[in-house]
Specification:
Number of helices of chain B: 15
Order of helices and strands of chain A: HHHHHHH
Strand order of the largest sheet of chain B: 1-2
Shape of chain B: globular
CATH superfamily of chain B: Cytochrome c oxidase-like, subunit I domain
Largest interface: B-C, 94 and 82 residues
CATH class of chain B: Mainly Alpha
Distance between the termini of chain B: 7 Å
Chains: A mainly alpha (204), B mainly alpha (540), C alpha+beta (325)
CATH topology of chain A: Four Helix Bundle (Hemerythrin (Met), subunit A)
Number of strands of chain A: 0
CATH architecture of chain B: Up-down Bundle
CATH topology of chain B: Cytochrome C Oxidase, Chain A
Radius of gyration of chain A: 20 Å
Number of domains of chain A: 1
Oligomer: heterotrimer
Chain lengths: 204, 540, 325
């Protein structure tokens, strides 16, 4: 063990600490996204037509492709962990890099979606030609919340790409596998959050 | 006379954590939880004095009903920043990050927290956040009140964004610290030290950390949307764009009510340590204290709507929040009974820390019961947004938490410094602080009863006498704080040597030298005799 | 219902109890505050007794007995205290809901809060600023909203308060009040003049109210408004007959669409007019010079109200020389 962690009695204790730390961190992140979702659900209850209209006009195809991208990336990362556990490091590294690439793809598609929205005259704050053309009460709230939620989620995906990419470069060995588990858990969480955003903003 | 067996050599051979390295750099890049605790203590206490200066100016403004020393714009910024600085830069981090960092590993028989470098990083994140908040003063400061209600917070001509960013950053520090404490307490306890044998202060740090990691992210979102609405006109709470200002209040108070429990639970932990030590007696019910601590942490998340009884919420919501508020009050009542019961058949020594705790008893009980009063809905209709509420929360935050903070300083002074403070001046400080507090805030209950609204620059007719009394009290309180500061500084520089356990406490942190060595304990650690085993005789 | 003796009311700093609701609320207040004082006194007393009785002497014992509370005693105490608190909550709930539920046939007054004034509109279409006039002994219902940010309508003597929220209407029921004049405060921070957003509830007895109803007609107020406009120099720039001078004419102004110099078009309603009196260069009418001085702090609420009544009285006047642009 490095000098930095000699306050731990054993690797097992350090592994337990790292896993618990990530679990606690994810509990915290859950509340972060719950707060955003509370706003979404609250406004959705007040403006059902506006939300239905917004969902209808959203970039469903791109959004759904993104869902597939994230699910694929979580799968590849889970397999990578298993590969690491069974000692197949090169495969694990490749799959981890693939996961990071999926994350990049997600962000690229998201940016494309945003460009599409802007082209249609949809901006946060209810600004843009779209709102002039469709003066539906509550419609600005739908789109502003969409940007808020996907924005926060996007930042988390970006951080995840960094973490997963870093993990791919610095693959831990068998005694430090909890570091990989922690990264994987974070990535799965980010995927899970998307599985809540996707139906709320893209499906009816 | 030593109270309990200290491993041989601890008091003599091992250098204390102060002397193992003495360069400034060794302090700035330390990963020693004790040094980080002291860094936090110095930083947060400085913020206390900064927030206090704003309070003095606010009270000076109320010496006359009309304009006195500042303009209305300045006044509004002063009370906002007083709240922001006191809540986020002092009250929330002070006891957990200062005393918690120093004591928790000692109290559980560990050499360090789980993540020492993360601990140091949390401190620097705090410093950066605090710097941004203070820097925002130079940008003109915010005037919305620390509660940032919409739509005013979206429309105010004041600059809001820098302050929000600063608070957000400090919030990240809080979350990181909370993670560290939770993991430490779960994984680093001495082998054989079960949960129900842990010192009560550590229990409160644990519960506080749980609240912190769950509630603070919600604040982060609230601050973000307020900032986006103000700076980029996102209009999320603009009725013209379908926004609901009341929804922001729900989001804000969902965090801010548990936040007050973040501010009181560690203080209650201090009380739970000081009383057994100076009454030389086991707690009347260890279990009751633990369960009421957890009860407050859990139920405290369900009561936020009692800040919104007149905000336009439904009757049903108001009733539910009111009832749950009564429930959460019971946990505090249980603690008070348990603490008083601990004195029964004890052997009570009137040390300065215990005197502060007695001030706490009185002020917390009274202040807490005024909390029950404002939770009574029809009464809150009259009191909401008046000085009654201001008095209520200052009774708890200053009368209870700050008093407990002072008790903690005096109690653990020998543990941290290895010296004793001078008792007589400390008594003077205690008396001035307690009296000054009472004179400052008791009249504010009467102001509130009369209908004096809060956040008022100019006072309506008929409230002057009480305002003047309150202002004079603030001078007395300030004097007391400076006396205490003097006692601390003098004690650090010239206090008499204390020995490892001058109070003959059974609690675990006293089973090593004072100040502790860098690695906390030397030799095998023996926690078989419990932290509150006052029925076990002192060793000769 | 216990009627709070005057001495107790003064000791607690409470204002007069101007309505039956206020008296009920004060009864509950008395019960709660008594419990608070008694509870605190008990804690203090018991602590004091224990400290005296069990203080540490020179023959300090090496150990103290280990005493743990019985679970039963803990539950009993906690339950008793909880029952007391729930009792407070229950009474508080009943009182709280009663201030929302007006009986039918109640007089309605519409309240609009705006930075930094109160506007009251009565059922017959009359308006007043900052002064709410009602008849003693008659319950009334306030239907309230805000024009800009959250304010809060607070009358300490009635023990009532309700936040006014932009984009929503909220109601508050005020039961029969005793004659007198009672301050209104804004109780939700709303900006730089929050502490100046004061008003008055003027509760008039039967006879005085009848007089007010007669006098406070459009004509009565409007005439007063003409006096105010003359004495404060308004008429030198604002004609009453449609002439365009340094300022727009008041004729046909009220309720009309007014183009501003920055391109916006606003309706000249009470809010716009009062704002223009206080901050004339903020929303200046297009085509007029930026000359009008501010009257901030120079007009009383009554004078402002009268001016508005004057302008309202001219709403249907056709201007004799050109229309207001």
């Amino acid at each position: 063990m490095s000098a930095d962690s000699d306050h731990f009695e054993s690797v097992a204790q350090r592994a337990q600490a790292v896993r618990l730390a990530l679990g606690v961190f994810l509990a915290s992140e859950t509340l972060l996204f719950t707060a955003i979702l509370a706003l979404v659900v609250g406004y959705r209850a007040t403006w059902p037509e506006a939300f239905a209209f917004g969902v209808h006009h959203n970039t469903k195809v791109l959004g759904s492709i993104n869902t597939v991208v994230l699910l694929t990336s979580s799968t590849s990362l889970a397999v990578a962990l298993e590969m690491l556990r069974t000692g197949r490091r090169r495969v694990a590294t490749a799959l981890t890099l693939f996961t990071a690439a999926c994350g990049v793809a997600f962000l690229a598609i998201k940016i494309t979606e945003y460009e599409h929205h802007f082209a249609e005259g949809i901006y946060p704050g209810g600004r843009g030609a779209f709102f002039v053309a469709h003066p539906i009460a509550g419609l600005p709230a739908f789109w502003t919340l969409y940007f808020l939620a996907t924005g926060f989620h996007g930042v988390h995906v970006l951080a995840g790409v960094g973490a997963v990419g870093y993990r791919a470069i610095r693959m831990p060995d068998a005694t430090e596998i909890h570091r990989f588990e922690a990264t994987a858990l974070y990535w799965h969480f980010v995927d899970l959050v998307w599985l809540f955003l996707w139906p709320l903003f893209y499906l009816a | 006379m030593t109270a309990l067996p200290i491993p041989p050599g601890a008091a003599h051979d091992e250098r204390s954590f102060w002397t193992t390295a003495t360069t400034i750099k060794s302090w700035l890049v330390t990963t020693d939880h004790k040094r980080i605790g002291i860094l936090y203590f110095v930083a947060t206490t400085s913020m206390l004095f900064l927030g206090g200066i704003f309070a003095i100016i606010i009270r000076l403004e109320h010496l006359t009903p009309g304009p006195t020393i500042v303009s209305a714009e300045t006044y509004n910024r002063l009370f906002t920043l007083h709240g922001v600085i006191m809540v986020w830069l002092y009250m929330i981090p002070s006891i957990p990050a200062g005393f918690g960092n120093f004591l928790v590993p000692l109290q559980i028989g560990a050499t360090e927290v789980a993540f020492p470098r993360l601990n140091l990083a949390s401190f620097y994140v705090y410093v950066i956040g605090a710097a941004v908040v203070i820097g925002s003063l130079f940008a003109g400061g915010v005037d919305t009140g620390w509660t940032f209600y919409a739509p005013y917070s979206a429309r105010t001509p004041a600059t809001v964004l820098p302050t929000l960013i600063g608070i957000f950053i400090v919030g990240c520090s809080t979350i990181l610290g909370g993670i560290n404490f939770i993991v430490t307490i779960h994984t680093m306890r001495l082998r054989g030290l079960g949960w129900m044998r842990m010192p009560l202060f550590t229990w409160t740090i644990y519960a506080t950390s749980i609240i912190q990691i769950l509630a603070t992210p919600v604040l982060g979102i609230a601050l973000t949307v307020i900032g986006l609405d103000h700076t980029f006109d996102w209009g999320l709470f603009d009725p013209a764009r379908g926004g609901d200002p009341v929804l922001l209040q729900h989001l804000f108070w969902f965090y801010s009510h548990p936040a007050v429990y973040i501010m009181i639970l560690p203080a209650m932990g201090v009380v739970s340590e000081v009383i057994p030590t100076f009454a030389h007696k086991n707690p009347y019910s260890y279990r009751a204290i633990v369960y009421s601590t957890l009860g407050i942490a859990f139920v405290g998340f369900l009561t936020w709507g009692h800040h919104m009884f007149v905000a336009g919420i439904s009757r049903f919501d108001a009733a539910a929040f009111g009832l749950l508020s009564m429930l959460v009050a019971i946990f505090s009542a249980i603690k008070v009974f348990t603490w008083v019961g601990t004195l029964f058949r004890g052997s009570i020594e009137l040390a300065v820390p215990l005197l502060y705790v007695f001030s706490f008893f009185f002020l917390f009980t009274f202040g807490g019961m005024t909390g029950v009063a404002v939770a009574t809905m029809s009464l809150d209709v009259h009191w909401h947004d008046t000085y009654f509420v201001v008095a209520h929360f200052h009774f708890i935050m200053v009368g209870a938490t700050f008093t407990a903070f002072l008790s903690a300083i005096h109690y653990w002074f020998p543990k941290v410094t290895g010296r004793l403070y001078a008792r007589k001046p400390a008594l003077v400080g205690w008396a001035l602080v307690t009296l000054g507090f009472l004179v400052t805030f008791t009249p504010q209950f009467l102001l509130g009863n009369g209908g004096m609204p809060r956040r008022y620059y100019d006072d309506p007719v008929g409230f002057s006498v009480l305002h003047v009394i309150s202002t004079m009290g603030s001078w007395l309180l300030t004097l007391g704080m400076f006396v205490v500061l003097g006692v601390i500084v003098h004690g650090v520089a010239r206090g008499a040597k204390a020995g490892p356990n001058p109070w003959h406490s059974r609690s675990f942190e006293w089973r090593t030298a004072s100040p502790p060595p860098k690695r906390n304990f030397v030799g095998p650690i023996d926690f078989n005799i419990g932290a509150y085993a006052y029925d076990v005789a002192d060793e000769p | 219902m216990i009627v709070l003796p005057d001495l107790a009311r003064h000791a607690l700093g409470l204002p007069v109890e101007a309505t039956p609701t206020a008296a009920s609320v004060d009864s509950l207040h008395a019960a709660v505050i008594t419990t608070t004082l008694v509870g605190t006194a008990c804690v203090a007393a018991v602590t004091f007794v224990f400290v005296l009785r069990y203080r540490r002497t020179r023959e300090a014992p090496a150990a103290t007995p280990r005493i743990v509370a019985s679970g039963f005693r803990e539950w009993l105490t906690a339950s008793a205290v909880l029952a007391l608190f729930v009792g407070f909550w229950a009474v508080g709930y009943v009182q709280y809901t009663s201030i929302e539920r007006p009986p039918s046939g109640t007089l309605v007054v519409y309240v609009t809060a705006k930075q930094w004034m109160w506007q009251f509109t009565y059922a017959d279409g009359r308006s007043s600023e900052d002064v709410l006039v009602v008849r003693a002994g008659t319950p009334f219902e306030l239907v309230m909203t805000s024009r800009d940010v959250i304010h809060s309508f607070f009358v300490p003597s009635f023990r009532i308060k309700q936040d006014t929220i932009p984009g929503r209407w909220v109601t508050l029921y005020v039961d029969a009040a005793a004659p007198g004049s009672y301050p209104i405060y804004c109780a939700e921070f709303c900006g730089v003049a929050h502490s100046h957003m004061l008003g008055e509830v003027r509760v008039l007895d039967e006879a005085d109210y009848a007089v007010w109803e007669r006098e406070a007609t459009h004509d009565g107020y409007a005439a007063r408004g003409r006096e105010v406009a003359a004495s404060h120099g308004c008429l030198s720039c604002h004609a009453l007959d449609g002439q365009k001078r340094a300022g727009p004419s008041f004729a046909g102004l009220y309720g009309s669409r007014v183009p501003l110099d920055d391109g916006r078009v606003v309706i000249a309603d009470e809010a716009y007019l009062t704002h223009s009196i206080v901050d004339p260069l903020a929303d200046r009418v297009a085509g007029y010079p930026a000359m009008m001085p501010s009257y901030h702090g120079q007009l009383s609420a009554e004078e402002t109200g009268a001016l508005l009544e004057l302008i309202r009285s001219l709403r249907d006047t056709l201007p004799t020389q050109g229309r207001v642009p």
